[in-house]
């Protein structure tokens, strides 16, 4: 509610009026004395002010809230809509706690004015108007901008300053000009506003005119920034205290479509006051018009029209105003005719080509358009002169700069006005902004859609994606769109949310901002075609929480309808730029491909699944499978720790003797290491003997590899939290959280390997361990969505493992630690991003170096289904240490070997002539090997080796059978029999292998005997360990007890089982159950 305190502030003097009385004062100090000191409650009340009877407490108390709000403004007899008053009311309330939050004297926050001219066009068009206004200044100019960079755009303005000096000299005057920009300087840590010396501003990237070139302009420049994040993002100009120009653009060459509003009338005093507070230092010299308010003067555009400013011979083309050939127009009509006339076709151009010529600037002069000519029927006209109108209600809704690296500075007039406008909308909301990710705005917009409001959001594809992926920036436009659509339940609701990506007037598709060809930088919100908020503030995290912004709230159906028409006329966004309601991305209507350079739905979908998708807690089948997967993986780790000397040599700190407080305790050992090395160690323990679970697809993989990253991070976080060395902001560090992380990591890896053959590009499948682990570890660490996105981008930018180490003579033990290496890297990347490293939005799609450009091309990744819990319920648990593609063949070999002996046969070498083995295409590619086998890693990935071994042993292989010291490694008998095994790829097996509803691992084996007879084919489609095989649960349980029994007693194993059944078991307590001294190892 509007308090009496706020009302009283709105009756006091203003910073401007106090400086008019004594120009030697500092504006900031005046504001403090007026509104923030302990004297402010009474010091200036009633001094030289006409306070109406409403100031009486009794009458004040009888007013409703909207009447109180209106009483705080200077609206006179102008009518105000209820919607305007609601928004203005809520913005006013911010002044209660922080009067400076609006960067204007409260009395001037609400006023009236007219808006005779609006420009929606490329940046040079805005600078042309700015130049025209500067040239015709008679006393003073204030110009504030975020970036000022020497360019064609800046030259248009500096030419005008030179011309202004010339004209002022001819009149015998001197113009006072003050300018603010933001160029970060370390000294601003002590003094936010730095005076810029002439030798600094005339050189380098600024290049303002030196005093010698503008003798009749007294130019002063301030560099304003409030560290760390308090950017001066304002872009507005006040000239002669009679006109205010508020624009979306900086002064620099770019490819942006921008917007400018030219405002006149009493509201100019409000912008003037904001200018003085932004300057913040003593005005020396002072502005000449400190004592000449706009409210007491004629409105210039009304005066011009009354004096007969219409332009004759309107059909004659006027030459373009350029840096080399300036043409300064005094009246809007002539200026609009000059600029709009330049867009008519010239020299045989089509209308679309004429638009392209105008939109092309110095940084992209050759962009061509493909829009059909019919799109130009509604002509592109940058300048719109509105019909004559009387003053209407306006308010400045600004925000002050806030530098601290947190999101606490929320309650400002700008932010509150946005939220109030959204919350009070009755019919429609139209937004255009480069970026939209400010968290406090997202849910209100979604709620507006739910209550029946049509919400149209015109965003720019890829605008500053790299910056939006920085920590705490809340992600890209595509992430926001994806999230908003996913929050809506019905197609009807989704139809009311109309997110589009900017499409230039000469284009038929959005062009990603990274190409710098067609972008949009407009900042505008129109609600119910009654009110609008236009100015400097983007609807992004930076503008919402940190930057100084200047915006105007207007109350005019005339202007709102004109702006809506102009915005849609001068771009093709609504026609061609619609985002998909499925993923929030733009898709080509013919190919369904996302835009080139787009970050796309891939990382967005992963993050949404990990962070915002709930698993069914009541579906016991999911959690039973998850517990089985966890126990199986831990059993594999203990098996390796107990039996593999080779693997044990890889465990422990990189530098022997390193002590890591709260470090991860490596199961089966007494080692304690950091979480990065811990991910490597547990990863290799689970994977090294090739006994952990597996899943087939276009790419093979082992989902339990992800536990190598998940468990060490959780154990470390648990111990560090308990010791007080780290504050944990993520989910509870319990078994239940571990099972959730397991299911989701399994699912990400499982979905990606179904249809995407990374091996076809020489990339090993452990890249998917890195992907899935990174995403889930970010969640466990308590990182934000955008940090997770940034981490995923690093996964795709990272060096990818070449699968040569699984191939032929190059097969080496690295295949046993490759998954641990991927898990290690996933943890390391997440920690790097958590410490502030940014991501890259183009990691997948950027040309020419994005991951897709080097691999899958425009097709990108293909996913067979939405993320859920399918993988953990369909994973293959290995009952034997055999490469997954060969397991069915080994089972068939066990049965055929039994038949062989049942016939009374005993010598496979003499009595078997050939073994025909039909299998999947994946098995044929991966484990079908001929020639010498060089080491254990090579042998366990050879289907002929494991089948021959099974016939000779009469039982499945064991891990020791692959070792160099095994008698089988150099067995001539095995080599002879191996050469008699003929492997063929079977199309039906391959089809069923890839079909989600079957996921079989088919193998058919026929044995041809030396006497001419044969052992009929044995067909194995679902080996033991497969979800469809009824023997799987018992076999995996037996495997677990056997592996754990290598180090632990039955009682100790029982404690492990009990801990897994209790969802509240702390992970550190769980891992403590696996600790054992080295003496327990069996070698």
From TrEMBL:
InterPro entries according to UniProt: MmgE/PrpD_sf, MmgE/PrpD_sf_1, MmgE/PrpD_sf_2, MmgE_PrpD, MmgE_PrpD_C, MmgE_PrpD_N, PLD-like_dom, PLipase_D/transphosphatidylase
GO CC field: mitochondrion
Domain of life assignment: Eukaryota
GO terms, molecular function: lyase activity
SMART domains listed in its UniProt record: PLDc
Pfam name, any one: MmgE_PrpD_N
Protein name: MmgE/PrpD
Source organism of this protein record: Penicillium patulum
């Amino acid at each position: 509610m509007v308090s009496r305190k706020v009302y009283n502030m709105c009756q006091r003097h203003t910073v401007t009026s106090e400086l008019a009385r004594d120009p030697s004062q500092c504006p900031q100090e005046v504001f403090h004395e007026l509104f923030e000191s302990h004297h402010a409650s009474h010091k200036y009340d009633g001094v030289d002010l006409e306070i109406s009877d409403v100031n009486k407490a009794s009458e004040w108390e009888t007013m409703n809230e909207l009447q109180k709000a209106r009483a705080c403004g200077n609206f006179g007899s102008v009518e105000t809509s209820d919607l305007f008053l609601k928004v203005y009311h809520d913005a006013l309330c911010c002044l209660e706690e922080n009067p400076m939050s609006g960067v204007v004297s409260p009395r001037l926050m609400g006023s009236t004015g007219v808006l005779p001219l609006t420009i929606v066009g490329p940046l040079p068009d805005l600078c042309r108007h700015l130049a025209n206004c500067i040239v015709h200044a008679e006393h003073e100019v204030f110009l504030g901008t975020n970036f000022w960079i020497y360019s064609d755009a800046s030259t248009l303005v500096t030419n005008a300053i030179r011309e202004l000096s010339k004209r002022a000299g001819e009149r015998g005057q001197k113009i006072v000009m003050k300018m603010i920009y933001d160029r970060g300087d370390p000294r601003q840590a002590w003094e936010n506003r730095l005076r810029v010396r002439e030798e600094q501003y005339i050189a380098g990237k600024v290049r303002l005119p030196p005093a010698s070139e503008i003798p009749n302009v007294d130019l002063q420049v301030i560099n304003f920034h409030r560290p760390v994040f308090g950017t001066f993002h304002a872009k507005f100009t006040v000239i002669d205290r009679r006109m205010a120009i508020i624009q979306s653009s900086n002064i620099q060459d770019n490819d942006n479509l921008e917007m400018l509003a030219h405002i006149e009338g009493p509201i100019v005093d409000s912008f003037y006051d904001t200018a003085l507070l932004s300057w913040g230092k003593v005005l020396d010299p002072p502005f000449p018009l400190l004592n000449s308010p706009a409210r007491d003067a004629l409105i210039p555009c009304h005066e011009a029209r009354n004096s007969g400013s219409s332009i004759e011979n309107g059909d004659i083309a006027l030459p373009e105003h350029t840096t080399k050939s300036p043409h300064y127009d005094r009246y809007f009509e002539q200026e609009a005719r000059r600029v709009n006339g330049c867009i008519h076709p010239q020299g045989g151009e089509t209308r679309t080509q004429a638009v392209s010529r105008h939109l092309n600037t110095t940084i992209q002069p050759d962009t061509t358009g493909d829009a059909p000519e019919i799109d130009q029927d509604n002509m592109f006209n940058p300048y719109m002169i509105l019909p004559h109108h009387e003053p209407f209600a306006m308010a400045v809704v600004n925000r002050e700069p806030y530098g601290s690296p947190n999101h606490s500075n929320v309650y400002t007039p700008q932010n509150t006005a946005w939220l109030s406008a959204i919350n009070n909308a009755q019919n429609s909301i139209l937004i255009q902004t480069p970026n939209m990710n400010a968290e406090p705005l997202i849910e209100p917009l979604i709620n507006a859609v739910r209550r029946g409001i049509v919400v149209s959001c015109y965003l720019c594809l890829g605008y500053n994606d790299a910056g939006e992926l920085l920590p705490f920036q809340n992600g890209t436009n595509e992430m926001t769109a994806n999230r908003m659509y996913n929050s809506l339940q019905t197609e009807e609701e989704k139809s009311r949310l109309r997110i589009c990506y900017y499409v230039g007037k000469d284009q038929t598709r959005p062009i990603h901002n990274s190409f710098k060809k067609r972008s949009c930088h407009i900042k505008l919100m129109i609600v119910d075609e009654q009110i609008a908020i236009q100015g400097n503030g983007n609807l992004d995290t930076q503008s919402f929480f940190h930057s100084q912004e200047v915006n105007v709230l207007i109350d005019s159906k005339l202007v709102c309808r004109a702006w809506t028409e102009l915005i849609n006329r001068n771009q093709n966004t609504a026609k061609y730029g619609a985002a998909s309601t499925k993923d929030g991305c733009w898709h080509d209507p013919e190919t369904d491909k996302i835009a080139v350079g787009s970050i796309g739905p891939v990382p967005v979908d992963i993050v949404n699944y990990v962070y915002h998708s709930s698993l069914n807690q009541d579906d016991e089948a999911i959690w039973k499978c998850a517990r089985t997967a966890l126990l199986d993986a831990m059993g594999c780790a203990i098996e390796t720790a107990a039996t593999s000397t080779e693997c044990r040599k890889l465990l422990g700190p990189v530098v022997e003797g390193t002590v890591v407080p709260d470090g991860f305790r490596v199961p089966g050992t007494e080692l304690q290491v950091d979480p990065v090395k811990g991910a490597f160690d547990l990863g290799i323990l689970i994977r090294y003997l090739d006994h952990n679970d597996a899943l087939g697809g276009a790419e093979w993989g082992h989902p339990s590899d992800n536990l190598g990253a998940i468990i060490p991070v959780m154990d470390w976080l648990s111990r560090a939290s308990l010791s007080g060395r780290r504050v944990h902001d993520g989910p509870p560090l319990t078994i239940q959280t571990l099972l959730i992380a397991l299911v989701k990591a399994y699912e990400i890896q499982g979905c990606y390997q179904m249809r995407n053959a990374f091996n076809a590009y020489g990339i090993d499948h452990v890249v998917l361990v890195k992907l899935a682990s990174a995403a889930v570890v970010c969640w466990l660490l308590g990182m934000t969505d955008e940090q997770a996105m940034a981490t995923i981008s690093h996964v795709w930018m990272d060096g990818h493992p070449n699968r040569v180490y699984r191939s032929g003579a190059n097969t080496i033990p690295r295949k046993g630690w490759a998954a641990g290496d991927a898990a290690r890297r996933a943890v390391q990347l997440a920690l790097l991003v958590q410490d502030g490293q940014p991501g890259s939005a183009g990691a997948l799609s950027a040309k020419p170096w994005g991951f897709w450009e080097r691999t899958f091309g425009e097709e990108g990744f293909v996913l067979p289904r939405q993320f859920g819990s399918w993988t953990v319920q369909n994973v293959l648990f290995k009952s034997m240490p055999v490469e997954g593609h060969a397991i069915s063949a080994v089972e068939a070999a066990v049965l055929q070997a039994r038949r062989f002996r049942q016939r009374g046969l005993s010598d496979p070498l003499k009595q078997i002539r050939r073994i025909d083995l039909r299998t999947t295409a994946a098995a044929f590619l991966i484990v079908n090997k001929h020639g010498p086998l060089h080491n254990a890693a090579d042998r366990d990935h050879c289907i002929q080796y494991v089948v021959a071994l099974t016939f000779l042993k009469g039982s499945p292989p064991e891990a020791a059978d692959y070792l160099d010291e095994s008698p089988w490694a150099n067995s001539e008998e095995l080599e002879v029999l191996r050469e008699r095994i003929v492997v063929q790829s079977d199309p039906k097996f391959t089809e069923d292998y890839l079909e989600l509803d079957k996921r079989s691992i088919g193998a058919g084996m026929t044995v041809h005997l030396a006497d001419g007879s044969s052992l009929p084919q044995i067909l194995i489609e679902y080996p033991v360990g497969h979800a469809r095989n009824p023997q799987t649960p018992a076999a995996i349980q037996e495997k677990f007890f056997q592996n754990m029994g290598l180090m632990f007693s039955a009682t100790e194993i029982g404690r492990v089982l009990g801990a897994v059944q209790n969802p509240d078991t702390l992970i550190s307590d769980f891992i403590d159950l696996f600790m054992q001294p080295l003496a327990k190892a069996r070698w």
